[in-house]
Amino acid sequence: MGFKSVLLAATLVATLAVALSERARFDNYRLYRIQVGTIEQLEVLQAVEQLGEGYSFWSAPVNVDSEVELVVPPHKFGEFGELVERYELEVELSVSDLEQLFEHERRRSTKEAFGWNAYYTLEEIYAWMDDLVARYPNVLTSVVGGQSHEGREIRGVKVSYNEGNPGVFMEGTIHAREWISGATLTWILNELLTSSNEQVRKIAENYDWYFFPITNPDGYVYTHTTNRQWRKTRKPHNILCVGADANRNWAYNFMQGGASNVPCSDTFAGPEPFSEEETRTLSAYFTSVQPKISTYLSFHAYSQLLLLPYGHTTEPLDNYDEIMDIGRLAIAKLSERHGTQYKIGNIAEAIYVASGGSIDWIKGVYKTPIVLCYELRDTGRYGFVLPPDQIVPNSEETLDSIIVILEEGEKRGLHSL
């Protein structure tokens, strides 16, 4: 091969690499809300989910008498229209151009300091946490909760005002595209350090807090650089399919429903429990601090739900009734500030069967007294692309409810480890 041929080949490889690393655009992609009214309609939507080809479900078709959100690419408009007509689907157009929604979400002033009027990259979040540790050295400690497949740290901070406090473990963004999850955790962390509110000060100083805003760092980076809709980890599982659902990969009732064994599926559970570096190492870290933890809170989006274990059954197991009572009080408090309405139940009864999740492993293996999962705002109008101006109100009402959870747990002796 001559010099010109070598140069041309190198140029083509470089061009391809740049093209493959460019951020995907979703110009004119539409987001539809669909009412699932019959078994036939459910089966059609499930067939579309298996088909792929540019379709993307933001909420999965699993039950009759439910709503799903489906992203439809421009080249599928005609096909989707035929399905709507043939199967009499009741649809509502929520977003006519998904790229415009993503662009609005990314827009922020380059002069703006870290805050909660915008979403931030992994590097910016980690730098902010480093700055916090430097400013509050007597209260904050940097901690590493694990590693990712691509070698990134799952970084967090421990907040401790007094030795011997019961612990609260805060897990966010295990699903990469759920940006509001990590933003909420950083806002609450900041409040625990800066708020003068008496109730906030009480929970800040009487519990040890373990904050991990981004527990799927590879996936989160990928949502910023390449594909905003990405959900999974980034470990290749065959020549075409990358990533597993890190909230289906935990070693408790693994693959007992609501998870896929198809590697390209968004709900692919992985080839075996803890196949993903993120879940394996984070679970090991939790085990190391577990004797001190009375409360485990996981944060997802969206649907406005407060969920209890378990995802594999609707049976009320462990201290279900007690936590349901606490949860009802919490969501009642949550609604007071901004009127946001939540529903409550275990995973299988409130949404659908979904096994292998983190909160099931925490409760099932360690019987941690209080284990809950938030599905934050909203109910589908914006879905995973919650506007930045909702970060603060969403976080305010969430903290209101967490105060109730901890106070009610204290009344019931659930923090006495």
Task: Present the secondary structure layout.
Blueprint: H1 3-21, E1 30-36, H2 39-51, E2 56-57, E3 66-72, H3 77-86, E4 90-95, H4 98-106, H5 122-135, E5 140-147, E6 153-159, E7 167-172, H6 179-194, H7 198-206, E8 208-212, H8 217-225, H9 277-289, E9 293-301, E10 305-308, H10 320-338, E11 343-346, H11 347-350, H12 358-366, E12 370-376, H13 391-411
Parallel strand pairs: 7-8, 7-9, 9-12, 10-11
Antiparallel strand pairs: 1-3, 1-4, 2-3, 5-6, 6-8, 10-12
Family: Belongs to the peptidase M14 family.
Keywords: Carboxypeptidase, Disulfide bond, Hydrolase, Metal-binding, Metalloprotease, Protease, Signal, Zinc
Cofactor: Zn(2+)
Describe what this molecule looks like in 3D.
With 417 residues, the chain is of the alpha/beta class. The chain contains 13 helices and twelve strands. The strands form two sheets. An eight-stranded mixed sheet has the order 5-6-8-7-9-12-10-11, with helices on both faces. It has a four-stranded antiparallel sheet with strand order 2-3-1-4.
Classify the oligomer: single chain
Helical percentage: 25-40%
What class, by secondary structure content? alpha/beta
How many β-strand runs? Answer: 12
As residue ranges, the low-confidence spans are: 1-19
Q: What can be said about the biggest beta sheet?
A: 8 strands, mixed
How far apart lie the N and C ends? 71 Å
The spatial strand order of the largest sheet comes to 5-6-8-7-9-12-10-11
pLDDT average, as an integer?
A: 93
The SSE string, one letter per element, is HEHEEHEHHEEEHHEHHEEHEHHEH
Based on CA atoms alone, the radius of gyration comes out at 22 Å
| H/I helix tally | 13
Strand content: 15-25%
Which shape, going by the Cα principal axes? globular
